[in-house]
Design brief:
By secondary structure, this protein is an alpha/beta fold. It has a single domain, classed as TIM Barrel (Alpha-Beta Barrel). Helix content is 47%, strand content 13%. The chain has an eight-stranded parallel β-barrel, surrounded by eight helices. β4, α7 and β5 form a beta-alpha-beta unit. α2 crosses α3, α3 crosses α13 and α6 runs parallel beside α7. The two termini are 37 Å apart. Bound molecules: the ligand O=c1ccn([C@@H]2O[C@H](COP(=O)(O)O)[C@@H](O)[C@H]2O)c(=O)[nH]1. The ligand O=c1ccn([C@@H]2O[C@H](COP(=O)(O)O)[C@@H](O)[C@H]2O)c(=O)[nH]1 binds next to β8 and α12.
C-alpha cells in the first residue's frame, strides 16, 4: 500500500522543523571516536563484524544527536558495503533505527541498470511488490533512493513505478557536485542541450504523473551546490522537482551557493552535509557527550545558515 508519498512527508517535516538540512552518514572507521571502535571490538573482535558494528554504533549515535533537529538522514551505502555482508547488515539496521527515531531515510546507492535489474534494485532498496512483499518486512526499506539516469528512461521506470506504488521517493543524478561533473554532464548534445539538461527533462517527464499534495513529484533530482549557476537554472526549469543538494560544507559550498536551490517561499530543496557534521568533534578521543554535543551543534549551526538561505529565496 502506498501511504503518504515520501516527498509530501519530507516537505511537511522540513516545514515543521523549519530546517532543510539532511545529515549524511558516511562513516569511515579511522575517523570514528575511539570509544565507539573499542566498544565494537570488545563485542565482536577486530574483524569485519567489529568494523561493521562500529559503523552502526557511530551512525546510531549521529542519529540520536540529530533526530530532534533534522527531517532526514542520507546513508551512503558505499561506506557500509566496504565491510561485506556485515557492513550491509549494519546499513539496514541503521535504516531501521533512523526510521524508528522519526527520520526520513535516503539510501545513497546511485543504482541504475537495464529494466529487469533495475526492478531488482527497487526490490532491494524500496520494497517488493505483491505477492513477494508478503515475504518481506515492510518497515526495513529506505524512504528514498538515489539513482543514475545514464541508461535512459526504460531503466528508470521500474524505480519510478515502485516508488509511486509504495509511497517512496527517488533522486536522479542530474548535475553532480564533484570536480569532474562537467566532463560528461556539461557536454552539449546534438539537440543543443547539455546532458544534464536532458537528464533534468527525463526527471520532469517521469515525475509528471506522480506529483503529490506538496506540488512536488516522487522523482527528485540530485543537483550539486558546487555549481550554483547550474543549480539556479535547473531550479527554474523544474518547478515540480524536489532537489537533493550535496556539496554544502566539506565540498566548499555555503549558504550563498545553496540559495538558488530554493523556490520562492524557501521550498523545494533538501541540503546534504555529511563530513562537516558527523566529524565535527575535536579528536578521535572525544567522549560520548562531547561527540553528541559537537554533532548536534554543527547540525544546529548548518540549519540556521540554510534556514536563512531558504528565507532569502525569491
Ligand atoms: O553529486 C553528488 C552526489 C552525491 N554526493 C554524496 O553526498 C555526500 C556528501 O558528503 P559531504 O561530506 O557533505 O561532502 C556523500 O555521501 C557523497 O557520496 C555528493 O557529494 N555529490
Amino acid at each position: 500500500m502506498a501511504g503518504e508519498p515520501f516527498v509530501d512527508r519530507l516537505v511537511r517535516r522540513i516545514e515543521e522543523l523549519e530546517n532543510p538540512l539532511c545529515v549524511g552518514i558516511d562513516p569511515v572507521l579511522g575517523r570514528i571516536p575511539a570509544h565507539i571502535r573499542e566498544e565494537a571490538a570488545r563485542r565482536h573482535g577486530q574483524n569485519e563484524r567489529g568494523a561493521a558494528a562500529a559503523l552502526y554504533l557511530f551512525g546510531a549515535a549521529v542519529v540520536d544527536a540529530v533526530a530532534p533537529l533534522v527531517p532526514a538522514v542520507k546513508l551512503q551505502s558505499a561506506f557500509f558495503e566496504a565491510y561485506g555482508g556485515a557492513g550491509v547488515e549494519a546499513f539496514w539496521q541503521l535504516v531501521l533505527y533512523a526510521r524508528q527515531k522519526g527520520l526520513l531515510v535516503i539510501a545513497d546507492a546511485k543504482r541504475g541498470d537495464i529494466g529487469s535489474t533495475a526492478a531488482a534494485y527497487a526490490d532491494a532498496f524500496l520494497g517488493h511488490e505483491a505477492p513477494v512483499s508478503a515475504w518481506a518486512d515492510p518497515d526495513r526499506y529506505a524512504d528514498a533512493l538515489t539513482v543514475n539516469p545514464y541508461l535512459g528512461s526504460d531503466a528508470l521506470e521500474p524505480f519510478v513505478k515502485r516508488a509511486a506504488a509504495l509511497g517512496r521517493g527517488l533522486f536522479v543524478l542530474v548535475k553532480t557536485s564533484n570536480p569532474g561533473a562537467a566532463e560528461l554532464q556539461d557536454q552539449v548534445l546534438l539537440s543543443g542541450e547539455t546532458l544534464a539538461l536532458q537528464a533534468a527533462k527525463l526527471v520532469d517527464a517521469l515525475g509528471a504523473k506522480h506529483v503529490g499534495r506538496s506540488g512536488f513529484s516522487a522523482v527528485g533530482a540530485v543537483v550539486g551546490a558546487t555549481y550554483p549557476e547550474d543549480l539556479a537554472r535547473l531550479r527554474a526549469w523544474l518547478p515540480h522537482t524536489f532537489f537533493l543538494v550535496p556539496g554544502y560544507g566539506a565540498q566548499g559550498a555555503g549558504a550563498a551557493e545553496v540559495a538558488g536551490a530554493f523556490l520562492p517561499g524557501g521550498r523545494g530543496a533538501l541540503v546534504v552535509a555529511a563530513r562537516s557534521i558527523i566529524y565535527a568533534f575535536s579528536s578521535e578521543h572525544a567522549g560520548p557527550e562531547e561527540f553528541r554535543a559537537s554533532v548536534a551543534a554543527a547540525a544546529r549551526s548548518a540549519a540556521l545558515d540554510l534556514r536563512a538561505a531558504a528565507r532569502r529565496a525569491t
